[in-house]
Amino acid sequence: MDAYFHLRSTPGLTERGARERMLDAMTTTDWIIDIALVLIVFRQMREERLTARTILLPLAIIGWAASTYLHDIPTAGNDLVLAAAGAGAGVLFGLFGGFLTRVRVAEGHVRIRASLGAAALWVISMGFRLAFAVWTSHASGAAHVGRFSVHHDITSSQAWVVALILMAFGEVVVRLGTIVVRGQLAMARAGREKAPVRREGAYV
């Protein structure tokens, strides 16, 4: 018998046949969330102003997902290690994505444009959640993840949910934070360049 656990059921591992699925079929909401996050960065491949909407929209999407799926954070075994690994991966993706996004000041406004590298990184990282869910919805994927969990002392199915959500959450927040900070630095630099040069003895 292969180890099996259900990501949307009660925590804990149980024994079931390998033919059982680890995950329910993805809901329409799951697809909408992931596709919406992917489309956001594609939209940014065309230069646009950095506005409150640019920041709040992805935060609202990932915030809703977190409130829906993060009901509790398991702490037994290596569950927290898995969650930390997911969050750490998200932070790294977010940093690289933020620095690969082009930021400049034009006409007094911060303008951003996702480079090809930033878009590719975003699609890969966000697509990983979709791919993982699809893979584990089949018997072979469920069996592999079940065995991995048993061998590495991951005791709760919720740990996988937490790791994947924290990965997405960390990437979204850190990427946006990096872009905002770079925008503020660019604005400050533009302000210094436009400031009149003060000459000794001159009135200002």
From TrEMBL:
The chain crosses the membrane at residues 54-70, 82-103, 115-138, 158-181. Keywords: Membrane, Transmembrane, Transmembrane helix. It comes from Actinacidiphila guanduensis. This is DUF1453 domain-containing protein. It comes from the Bacteria.
